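Sharing a chain and its predicted structure for anyone who wants a worked example. Both blocks are below, sequence first, tokens second.
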Amino acid sequence: MPQRIAVDAELVRRLVAGQFPQWADLPIQPVADGGWDNWTFHLGSDMSVRLPSAAEYALAVEKEHRWLPELAPRLPLPIPVPLAKGKPGAGYPYAWSIYSWLDGQPTSVDRIADPVRFASDLAEFLAALQRVDPTGGPLPGLHNWFRGGTLRTYGGEARRSLAALDGHVDVDLARAIWTSALDAAWDGTPTWFHGDVAQGNLLLNEGKLAAVIDFGTCGVGDPACDLAVAWTLLTAEGRQAFRERLSVDGATWARGRGWALWKTLTACARTVGRADEQAATAWRVLDEIFAEYVADTRRQQYQP
């Protein structure tokens, strides 16, 4: 687990005043639920300040400044656009960023007005992202926790989670799903991916998908990691619309299911014996992954 450092509004004020005096008089307020990888603050009414919370997360700063301005005009929804890059200073050790502010509410199931429309809009966004020329883009690595690479990177974590869950879930079924994901070959054609398509990074306006944020894990590689959202957030009908819009083949779908399973097994292993909302969500998603895999396997068996 990365060693995070604390950042408060006073530190941000000193950094902004020292490096960007034109914005020194703007109010600074922390953003509620501002994320884990970065500390996020409002700067005035139309900007945000993002400061990596650990050295590992700081690796994404250069990448975001290099690539987000190129990706933004090619995508059908707004994404954050960096306005300025700060340097270490005032006791803060990493590069940091000032971005344009994007309005919207973080996605939650109860806020989505039309689950199928939401799924289709999200697929449209990812399809556009995948069409962007990947030449020179950042390959999987430490900067994005190897998103876009092989699921085998997380094999040890998956096995530990399964051991912790033995007696609590159908571990044989979980292993079968995991194995099918590992065995599903990628053809090696790299495309752009976001890397963390999750509730907090999808913004809504009046219940509709309005923006996609936090590209710290983006890169060029296997886009299957972006499919995990099909199980972690979408409804069954939405998942079908999502898959059809992206024209996902069986192998890619299996790898995407594997990414969802890895994340969910880890969450379930942390919440064994708990009865809070986070635990309930994790176990519900695991049930969804199990049910969809069984149904998909049966469907394939009966196809002519």
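Comments welcome. The first helix runs from residue 9 to 19.
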